Amino acid sequence: MPTFNLKLPLPxxxxxxxxxxEIMRFLVRSTGDRDDAMDLFQETWLRAYxxxxxxxxxxxLRPWIFRIASNLCRNRARDRMRRGRVISHExxxxxxxxxxxxxxxxxxxxxxxxxxxxxxxxxxxxxxALMMRKFAGLEYAExxxxxxxxxxxxxxxxxQALKKLRLEE
Length: 169
Description:
Blueprint: H1 10-31, H2 34-51, H3 61-83, H4 89-100, H5 109-121, H6 124-134, H7 140-147, H8 151-168
């Protein structure tokens, strides 16, 4: 009777359990839409599972998963830009109203919404690096790996993002 060595990636399943919440939070913050985040969440883990047997990353599983998730977010945003569904005249009017609202809202839902909108307006790599650092707690080397850049570039992206957010206050 032939035996088949399926080599189920048991450590991968453990990684999914350990990282699923932080990946989902990252995707929700990146997309701003729970449904999009759910789609990208499933796609992230599907791609990771398919490639896991061939993973040879010395950087570790965590930044590798974040790289997959951030690439999928970038691709989704690029696709939406191509289809012209990102910016409409109504959102431009809403943005103008938002800029007239007080920015110094401490801790309330309005302050959280303002922060979310401000982060969403950051350039892609800056916004993603900031979220990975401040919300997911990744080290700069991990962020660099996830965004396919150096740790120094990741640090600079976070710095520039924070600088831009402070200027908006």
